[in-house]
Amino acid sequence: MSPIVRPYGDTTGDGMVQTSFTLPVPAGKLADGAAVQLANKMGLDPAMVAHSKAMGPDFTFFVVYGRAQHLVDTDAVTVVERDYDLLSPKEANLAIRKGLRRRLTVVGACIGNDAHTVGIDAILNIKGFAGEKGLEYYRELRVVNLGAQVSVPGLVERSLAEAADAVLVSQVITQRDAHLLNTMEMSAAFREAYPDSRRPVLVVGGPRFDEQMAAELGVDRVFSRGTTPAEVASFLVHELVTRRRAVRGAA
Amino acid sequence: MPARPEPRLALDPAKVRKARRLAKRVGRPIVALAQEHTTVSIERATLRMAGLSGADPDGIPWANRLLDTVRADVGLDHGVALPVWDALVRGEAGDLAELAGKASVGSVRFRLPEGRDRVRARAAARKSVGAGISRLDASRRQRERLVKKWGDPKQRPWIYLIVATGDIYEDIGQAQAAARGGADVIAVIRSTGQSLLDFVPEGATREGYAGTYATQENFRLMRAALDQSSAELGRYVRLTNYASGLCMPEIATLAGLQRLDMMLNDSMYGILFRDINPVRTLVDQRFSRQVHARAGIIINTGEDNYLTTADAIEAAHTVTVSQLLNESFAKEAGLADWQLGLGHAFEIDPDVPDSFRLELAHALLARQLFPNAPLKWMPPTRHMTGDVFRGYLLDGFFNLVGALTGQGILLVGMMTEAVVTPWLSDRDLALQNVRYVLNACGGLSEDFHPPPDGFINTRARLVLDESIDLLERILAHSEPTHGAGLLAAIADGTFGLMKRPADGGRGLDGVVRRADDYANPAIDALEAE
Predict the structure, then answer these.
(1) What does B376-424 look like in DSSP terms, one character per residue?
(2) N or C, where is chain B less crowded by C-beta within 10 Å?
(3) Quick one: which of A197, A194, A173 has its CA closest to A183?
(4) Do B181 and A125 touch (CB under 8 A)?
């Protein structure tokens, strides 16, 4: 197969594409012309406005068909592989049940003065986030949500008591780098309290974190804005079931 | 409300009566629990009813500051009213806000008044809180006047649309556009996690997480904007928000004062999805529903939520059971049939054979069990995959069930569910979908008579039987501490697969057993009806 392809409408090489969008322009000839201009700039030529409709006095909605002028070289496609597989709740549960033969305990908290539980609740509460159920929904995860304003020693103590496999910490407040300092204090405390091989997986999340900073902060993973519960659950399975087992197998 | 719809299902009336009787029995211990307890939020709602609003410079509402001080001085088991109005009668402050300010800096000490002092404090409390009750009544009368003037929507179901930008001023523009596009009811989604705040934020807010904070000022601004739209459009556009979470009673009170028209109000949502303590929120719910009853607000219940976690076929009877329980709790709290927006949803896997017929059976069952309630019909979410074209078709079938089974309130489904928060064009397309279906087959229900032994009737009867079984099992549940079957059933994961024990979850420390001489003039007034 040639690595060079075009979109396929009903004939090889026809390049046909369908798209829809809204412009902040009142419906009319000018609006239709503007839609064609946009489609042309998107690489659709010729472009045909198949449908345009006023949406209120100031907006127009379009359905446009056109021939894409661009070629796609499939050899030049690079795919960014996530370093772990994204699992559905069912798959995650199964992996834990098979790989660990017990439930995995996750302790979550907002530490320091941060009272914003939005992030930790979006990940942990069954209600979840972005249409995905939170970790509480996973039968094989035992979730202990400590809520807001938990002290670092309190968090370590609870993690020991609950025999936590993973500790999730959420930080929203960034004043004077509070999120970074709190995280480093937390990771240091866990290193002190646990022998290295027994330390729970440490995960920190919040809208202003840089995902590259895990090593610097002393945690196993940093999650930033828009992270969904399934991503977190999949990462935990990867770290605690898939990877740890692989390490044991090698040793 | 339309005339009672003609029955379409051949249900055994004796079984329907039995299901209702069982629901009432299941509810009885919960009602008793509510009568024996109060909560911090009920007491704060009482203060708010008497006109206390505003917050200290840190944003902590005066209602919280005052209540916390009273609780520290004399406890809450006698209610907040006696110590607070005793302090006012003693001349510690000119009004509640001043008293809260003084209390928060420790310059007032509260006591439990005795004898004549108690009589005086009680009379003063009754007068202040009574003024708030009168404001609820005035809001209700105002709504009745405006509905008369501008009229109700011409069609059933009422079309319910959501806005949620986080910024109340942005919401207003979107809500007015949605009303112009055909929405009869606007719901302003709350900021994620507001249900877990044990205070109600103050003032107009411009930042939220996936929603806009419910505040008294936001309520006022949005209601005023929709009054403008109602006048422009010649129909009364209703406003919805959420009386749920830890501040359920306070938000119900603010909604009544600011003439909101519908409120999501269902303890089970907070218990299952937010891990709120079951006792706290069931106690709060009774007070909230009493306020809603008085304020003429339609409640919406959240049965649709169960089906987002449990299977919509296997768990169909849990929806019915919850509707029966919600009806029973609501009636006990004084709500009338026209105020019961009992929830249910179109969430059966579309790949299951006969999924549409099953949906019809479930929707008809709800319709027939609650013939005079404005049932709230919720669109598919769980099986919306991101294929927006298939989603549009699914929403069309959802609308068809709504039209065919005479649902009261139809929450408009978005084809971009699970992809993006709705775009302007998504809303417009969604409303076209609804309008097409209602236009094309709004009257189809009169031609629709499923045969008594056909698939739909058989399925509906099965779900009713399963519901009766479940209610009987709940009654049989025994739990030594509370003696309430429902609490034990909730602890066992009967609903939505979540296990929520009565001594776990958030907000339990805000529950207080009432003393014998507990006094709350708001409850007295609400129960006097």
Answers:
(1) EEE---TT--S-HHHHHHHHHHHHHHHHHTT-SEEEPP-TTTTTSSPPH
(2) C
(3) A173
(4) no
> Can you tell me the mean pLDDT for A224-239?
91
Q: Say if residue B473's pLDDT is above 60.
A: yes
In tens, the pLDDT along B82-109 reads 999 999 999 999 999 999 999 999 999 9
Cα–chain center distance at A205: 11
Taking an 8 Å cut-off on Cβ atoms, the answer to whether B424 and A118 are in contact is no
B499 is catalytic: no
Secondary structure (3-state) at B122: helix
Can you tell me the distance from the alpha carbon of B155 to that of B402, in angstroms, rounded to the nearest whole number? 12
- For the entire predicted model, the pTM comes to 0.85
By the 8 A CB rule, do B245 and B274 touch?
Answer: yes
Tell me the two tokens of residue A112: 């320091």
User: Nearest Cα to A168, choosing from A155, A149, A154, A184?
Assistant: A155
Mean pLDDT of chain B: 93
| Inter-chain CB pairs, A–B, below 8 Å | 54
How far apart are the C-alpha atoms of B120 and B124, rounded to whole Å? 6
Q: Distance (Å, rounded) from C-alpha B489 to C-alpha B141?
A: 40
pLDDT in tens, B188-234: 999 877 888 999 999 999 988 778 999 999 999 999 999 999 999 99
Contacts of A20 in chain B (CB under 8 A): 425
Residue B18: how many CB atoms within 10 A of its CB?
15
- DSSP secondary structure, A125-181, as one string: STT-BTTB--GGG-TTEEEEE--SSB-HHHHHHHHHHHT-SEEEEE----GGGHHHH
Give the other-Cβ count within 10 Å of A240's Cβ.
Answer: 20
- Positive or negative, the Cα torsion across B311, B366, B381, B404? positive
Task: Select from B366, B381, B408 the least CA-distant residue to B238.
Answer: B408
Residue B445 clears pLDDT 50, i.e. is over it: yes
Among all residues of chain B, which has the CA nearest to that of A134? B273
> Residue A117 has what pLDDT?
72
Which ipTM score applies to this complex?
A: 0.83
Maximum C-alpha span of chain A: 72
Answer yes or no: CATH 3.40.50.2300 is held by domain A89-250: no
Q: Do B498 and A126 touch (CB under 8 A)?
A: yes
Known active-site residue A29: no
- pLDDT by residue (tens digit) across A113-141? 766 777 888 899 887 776 788 999 999 99
Q: Do A121 and B418 touch (CB under 8 A)?
A: no
Quick check: A69 and A15 in contact, CB under 8 A?
Answer: yes
Kindly indicate whether the domain formed by B1-523 is annotated with CATH number 3.20.20.440.
yes
Residue-wise burial string across B315-330, b where 16 or more C-beta atoms lie within 10 A, e elsewhere: bbbbbbbbbbbbbbbb
> B277 vs chain A: nearest CA distance in angstroms?
14
Whole-number pLDDT of residue A1: 65
CB neighbourhood size of B141 (10 A): 12
Return the H-helix or E-strand segment holding B434: helix B424-441
Confidence of residue A248 (pLDDT cuts 50, 70, 90): very low
Domain boundaries, chain A: 4-75, 89-250
